[in-house]
Specification:
Elements lengths: L2 E3 L9 E2 L19 H4 L4 E3 L6 E3 L29 E2 L29 E4 L8 H7 L49 E4 L25 H4 L33 E9 L5 H11 L5 H13 L15 H6 L5 E7 L3 E7 L7 H8 L4 E7 L4 H6 L6 H10 L5 E6 L8 H18 L6 E5 L25 H6 L13 E3 L2 E5 L4 E7 L4 E3 L3 E5 L3 E10 L2 E2 L2 E3 L3 E7 L11 E3 L6 E12 L6 E2 L3 E6 L2 E14 L6 E4 L3 E2 L4 E14 L10 E6 L2 E14 L1
Parallel strand pairs: 8-10, 8-11, 11-12, 12-13
Antiparallel strand pairs: 1-9, 2-5, 3-4, 6-7, 9-10, 14-23, 15-16, 16-22, 17-21, 18-19, 18-23, 19-20, 19-22, 24-30, 24-32, 25-29, 26-27, 26-31, 27-28, 27-30, 31-32
The structure holds guanosine-5'-triphosphate (GTP) and magnesium ion.
């Protein structure tokens, strides 16, 4: 039933340890922060990231969640610790498109990792004249690699940048070189069922006038020539805005995350079954098949884990998408993989989330394993979703049956994990804790029937989902749809781009600019939740069937945008990053895996411009050699291939990045400047 978000696996065993040549000594140069004293008021502390003045009683920034504390601990870094250079494997299989059926229906397609084919570095040069001809309106678009982490690092700081503070000063005359056609990603089609989904729930904070990343970066050269139109100038047409009564249920994209085997898929399957999305007959079938394979306990998970490999291994590998309706929401369930090898897949699914359920295995030893700094995924998932902008969280303390529904166990989990979540920037008031058992159906959609849970008087899981605040949508902004899947039917000459509409709206007949090929296409039809739909608006997960474009020019990692408001395509970027607690230091020359919306690319740290002071957010040291755990810094990275990107201040979803190495997220960040466009 559910479609799978399909992302290439990412095994990173090829790397070199060649950091010994670096000197890890790092000292903050006090002399370089002359204004620091002036900016610290007596009873407040200033956030290093957003410069908001917080009351001294606050342990983390009220605006962006950054922890208050000495990030620059002027330590001499442990020389024994070696950083490793990640080498992105260029082993993506060459692209083949297999049409199984002549008339492929978008909604009835599914892809999984086994039949995904990608090719890295395959470039088709586009005829520049054609491109210029095609663009009719406007100018061409110019956790730690943990050792022994005891504390954790905030991530909410990525959300809060004042949009208005970034000066838009683009010139229209310079033509972009649009000759690059990055990696292709063709999805083999298949005829199982279901479709795809997707939110961005954060409003920008108004009082961050000091953060003008583009302006502050100290570079005056305009990196975005050719992209003349400011998104602020955009005026939406009437049909693009939802009428009040039009959608009775707001769509809520809900990422189910957590450590491997915590019961995410079982919980999702159980919910879908209880809410009538999986029939009794289907359920019997799953039970029978699972039993036959000796995996009886995975019957509910099988509703989400569809591929033979997932069922065989008993783990989720790609993000499964399913739907149900609660009282308030049309919920899009994004069941993520918990296994560490599939964190990149988790990222691509959860990046679309408006809210999240963090599933915890309450069993003795299992909760602890999830919290483990080296192998556990609970912390990394929590950090990642916070940095995706998710600030509303349900912690589903699952498998309570395995601990006899013990209140003490539940309280212990709250106390240990609660501290960690606070340090990630989650506010207590935005986190609900629900003890439950997916297998024994306790506390999912109704009050627990088991007397051993009689100590619990809070909401059940479904009620907690209904208590989420509705996400904010960017209806009045120009179209942005990062493409997470491409479905092709070569025999029919059809191509559909799937993803979540982050901003704006489309309907059949709309002209869209497909990036990075910079080709204009016309929307033929749209589907949402496997149904044809007339209009797609911000927040919707849709499949957009396109006319007038070569299928090779539509690729996952690309973006559909408004022809007058092209997004950038670049490989040289300035970032503001925060290195996670316990992570390997980032050095000049570090090779990292760079993640941004649905794209992933190998990146090299070309420059560390400055370290930022934890208290003032100002430059603490210019041109340091490395960034240690818990430090934030401005860096420049050069990617192996250009990607579709925007400055975070202009478009959050296209400007939020994750840096990973050795299978761990080492830093989260935002794009502060596009140094050079392609
Ligand atoms: P990944 O996607 O691979 O990370 O795993 P998951 O989190 O989706 O876990 P899954 O749903 O596959 O379940 C893993 C195992 O936990 C299965 O054997 C389930 O039967 C078991 N399980 C899930 N929920 C419960 C529960 O409430 N109680 C008990 N005792 N076992 C459970
Ligand atoms: Mg699973």
């Amino acid at each position: 039933m559910p479609r799978k978000v399909n992302y290439g696996l990412d095994y990173d065993d090829d790397y070199d340890d060649n950091y010994d040549e670096y000197d890890y000594r790092y000292e903050v140069d006090e002399n370089e922060t002359p204004s620091q004293k002036e900016t610290i008021k007596h009873s407040v502390w200033r956030c290093s990231i957003c410069t908001y003045d917080n009351d001294e009683t606050m342990s983390s920034c009220d605006i962006c969640g950054v922890l208050h504390g000495p990030l620059l601990n002027n330590s001499i870094y442990d020389k024994k610790r070696t950083a490793n250079i990640f080498d992105l494997k260029s082993s993506r299989v060459s692209s083949t498109v297999v049409g199984r059926d002549e008339a492929v229906k978008v909604s009835s397609m599914r892809s999984d990792s086994s039949n995904l084919s990608t090719e890295k570095g395959k470039h088709n040069r586009l005829d520049e004249i054609n491109i210029l001809k095609n663009i009719e309106v406007g100018p061409p678009a110019g956790s730690r690699t943990s050792d022994n982490c005891s504390a954790s690092v905030p991530e909410g700081w990525l959300d809060h940048v004042d949009e208005s503070s970034v000066a838009v000063n683009l010139q229209s005359s310079v033509k972009r070189s649009l000759s690059l056609m990055p990696k292709e990603r063709n999805v083999m089609v298949d005829d199982s069922s279901s479709s795809r989904n997707g939110g961005e729930a954060n409003s920008l904070t108004s009082n961050l006038e000091n953060i003008s990343f583009a302006a502050k970066s100290g570079h005056s050269n305009d990196a975005n020539p050719g992209r003349a139109n400011s998104r602020a100038q955009y005026k939406p047409e009437k049909w693009m805005l939802p009428e009040k009564a039009e959608h009775s249920l707001t769509q809520l994209n809900l990422a189910i995350v957590g450590h491997v085997d915590s019961g995410k898929s079982t919980l999702s399957g159980r919910l879908l079954h209880l809410l009538g999305r999986i029939s009794q007959k289907e359920m019997h079938k799953y039970e029978k098949e699972a039993k036959l394979q000796g995996k009886g306990s995975f019957a509910y998970a099988w509703a989400l884990d569809e591929s033979a490999e997932e069922r065989e291994r008993g783990i989720t590998m790609t993000v499964a998408v399913a739907y149900f309706d609660s009282k308030r929401y049309h919920v899009v369930v994004l069941d993520s993989p918990g296994h560490k090898d599939f964190v990149p897949n988790m990222i691509t699914g959860a990046t679309q989330a408006d809210a999240s359920i963090l599933v915890i295995d309450a069993s003795i030893g299992s909760f602890e394993a999830g919290m483990d700094g080296t192998k556990g995924q609970t912390r990394e998932h929590a950090q990642l979703i916070r940095s995706f902008g998710v600030d509303q969280l349900i912690v589903a303390v699952n498998k309570m049956d395995a601990v006899d529904y013990s209140k003490e166990r539940f309280d212990l989990i709250i106390s240990q994990l609660g501290t960690f979540l606070r340090s990630c920037g989650f506010k207590d008031s935005s986190v609900s804790w629900i003890p439950l058992s997916a297998v024994e159906n306790q506390n999912l959609v109704s009050a627990p029937s088991n007397f051993r849970l009689s100590w619990y008087h809070g909401p059940n899981l479904l009620d907690a989902i209904d208590s989420f605040q509705p996400p904010t949508r960017e209806f009045s902004k120009p179209l942005i749809m990062p493409i997470c899947d491409v479905i092709k039917s070569p025999s029919q000459g059809q191509v559909s781009a799937c993803g979540k509409l982050e901003a704006g709206a489309v309907r059949s007949g709309s002209k869209v600019l497909v990036m990075p090929s910079a080709t204009i296409a016309t929307v033929r039809s749209l589907e949402r939740d496997s149904q044809a739909c007339p209009i797609g608006r911000a927040g919707d997960n849709i499949a957009v069937s396109l006319n007038g474009i070569d299928g090779n020019h539509v690729m996952a990692g690309g973006v559909l945008c408004h022809p007058d408001f092209p997004i950038a395509f670049a490989k040289h970027l300035e970032l503001k990053v925060l290195v996670l607690d316990g992570a390997t230091p980032i050095l000049i020359g570090s090779q990292l895996e760079f993640h941004i919306h649905h794209a992933k690319e190998a990146a090299r740290v070309a420059r560390i411009s400055s370290l930022l002071d934890s208290k003032t957010g100002k430059v603490a040291k210019k041109a340091p050699r490395c960034i240690l755990a818990k430090q934030s810094a401005v860096v420049e990275v050069i990617l192996q291939e250009a990607i579709c990107v925007e400055e975070f201040s202009k478009c959050k979803v296209l400007g939020r990045v994750f840096l990973r190495t050795l299978g761990r997220t080492v830093a989260v960040g935002i794009v502060t400047r596009i140094v050079e466009e392609q």
